[in-house]
Design a protein that fits this description.
Length: 385
């Protein structure tokens, strides 16, 4: 009997739309999923996308979309019912995942031994603690949880530039930069609040600062030492370094993407006023100012962090790091993101991400199949003994 063909599922709320392909009107999902289907097919696997709410775990089926012909995934897709996949790539939008959109699916898949790629990572504070315990502390700025307001103010006085950020935040929302002025006043800067983009620059007294920090401490926040980042034309630069695991389970660098803050910007996030720039553009600008961008060091650091993190979380396979380079050339890991935005990547990087995410999901599926076969062999042997 021929072995059952591997089926991988992509959990997403993004649905196919009508498009014109080669003069014909067809329904097809976003290009990323077509590319994933193509790469899965090259590995002898099939791919299906589905909404987490369209999985019927009791009957063992999912309702979703697959290419009408796996050999032509850029053409039409059809809605159909399939068996449960052998592995799942969870690609639900961050804001929906935070609200628990995929929680039920994760729990049900875990009960059935179906690996889910792209697992939730620890909180920002747990990630910092892990990096230190894994021997990577040299890449992490001094950081602690905001509990004691007096301690926080002492750190702000010592560090001169400090960032206070929500543990569960994303997109630069709610990040505060606090700078000492030497005049018993503190400069507080915000680019984006929880209610949307709202740039704010104010001076506060020590007692006003304590009151601000006390209000923030009601929700988990981190206090982090500010890094004197490289500046190009007076604007701070950091880097999104994306890594992914492929069909052999090994880590690869998808790309290094510079992000440039607005003048006096707190964060480099595009939604908060930052600017995306190609590495070639940045290197050209930097060379005019006698600055060298340590691209190899950034990539090596990201790979090392990913390899260590996946020792703790084996199904981690796609990670985006916000990394900085200080004025002395030291590399810093500012934040880790388990769902790096594809919108920051070039088309070549997007193709590479599709290839590796499909490949790693197939890798997990095949590992599961091998494990089930070994289990069956053991049970058969036991029944004969």
């Amino acid at each position: 009997m021929a072995p059952k063909q591997v089926l991988i599922g992509v959990a997403t709320t993004v649905q196919p739309k009508e498009r014109i392909v080669k003069g014909r009107r067809v329904k097809r999902p976003a290009l990323h999923y077509c590319r994933m289907a193509e790469y899965a097919g090259s590995l002898g696997a099939r791919l299906m996308i589905f909404d987490p709410d369209d999985a019927n775990w009791s009957s063992g089926h999912i309702l979703g979309w697959r290419p009408v012909n796996m050999s032509y995934p850029y053409r039409g897709w059809e809605r159909c019912e399939e068996r449960l996949p052998d592995a799942i790539y969870e690609n639900v939008f961050v804001h929906l995942a935070v609200k628990g959109k995929s929680s039920k699916m994760r729990a049900a898949a875990r009960e059935r031994g179906i690996p889910v790629f792209n697992p939730p990572l620890p909180s920002k504070w747990q990630a910092v603690s892990f990096m230190k315990s894994a021997g990577l502390g040299q890449y992490v700025p001094d950081t602690f949880v905001l509990r004691d307001v007096k301690r926080a103010v002492r750190a702000i006085d010592e560090w001169k530039v400090t960032y206070v950020k929500p543990v569960g935040g994303y997109g630069g929302s709610g990040v505060i930069r606090i700078e000492t002025t030497g005049k018993q006043l503190y400069r507080v800067s915000v680019d984006r609040s929880a209610k949307g983009t709202r740039r704010q620059r104010i001076l506060v007294t020590r007692s006003e600062l304590e009151r601000l920090l006390r209000s923030r401490s009601r929700v988990p926040h981190l206090v982090q030492k500010g890094i004197r980042l490289l500046k190009i034309d007076g604007r701070s630069v950091d880097f999104r370094v994306v890594t992914a695991r492929g069909a052999d389970g090994k880590w690869f660098v998808i790309g290094v993407v510079p992000k440039v803050a607005a003048a006096d910007g707190v964060v480099t996030n595009i939604v908060a006023g930052g600017e995306l720039m190609s590495l070639e553009q940045l290197e050209s600008l930097a060379s005019r100012q006698g600055i060298t961008i340590p691209v190899r060091d950034l990539s090596a650091c990201a790979l090392r962090c990913s390899e260590k993190l996946s020792e703790r979380i084996p199904k981690a396979g796609l990670l985006g790091y916000d990394m900085g380079v200080d004025t002395n050339g030291n590399i810093w890991m500012i934040e880790v993101n388990p769902k790096p935005a594809r919108s920051l990547l070039s088309d070549d990087m997007k193709r590479l991400m599709a290839k590796h995410t499909a490949g790693f999901t197939v890798y997990l599926a095949r590992k599961r199949s091998l494990k089930l076969k070994r289990s069956d062999v053991k049970m058969t042997a036991a029944s004969w003994s």
